[in-house]
Amino acid sequence: MARMTMHILSRNAARTHSMLPPLSPKKSIELKVPMCCEVCEENVREELTVLEGVKEISIDVGTQKVIVWGHCDVRLEPYVVLRAVKKVKHRAEMWRK
């Protein structure tokens, strides 16, 4: 049975020193990340939660899909999110539709 988890960051945790606009639109970035266990999932989550602008993270280990929702600012670009995940999961790639 596939397990899916979602992590919502608090408003203060998602913001850093350069305060984001309060009504900034949100976008999602989808990744395919090979994960086999809860440790893999936690490692991916830890890398993503430190990125500026990340609001929510959804991880489905069964389908190997990670969805990151965040503010549409320069710091939360797909290549930045992918590079962060590749620090712990080298075979991560963008999700193909």
Automatic annotation (TrEMBL):
<dbReference type="InterPro" id="IPR036163">
    <property type="entry name" value="HMA_dom_sf"/>
</dbReference>
<keyword id="KW-0479">Metal-binding</keyword>
<protein>
    <recommendedName>
        <fullName>HMA domain-containing protein</fullName>
    </recommendedName>
</protein>
<dbReference type="Pfam" id="PF00403">
    <property type="entry name" value="HMA"/>
</dbReference>
<feature type="domain" description="HMA">
    <location>
        <begin position="26"/>
        <end position="93"/>
    </location>
</feature>
<dbReference type="GO" id="GO:0046872">
    <property type="term" value="F:metal ion binding"/>
</dbReference>
<dbReference type="InterPro" id="IPR006121">
    <property type="entry name" value="HMA_dom"/>
</dbReference>
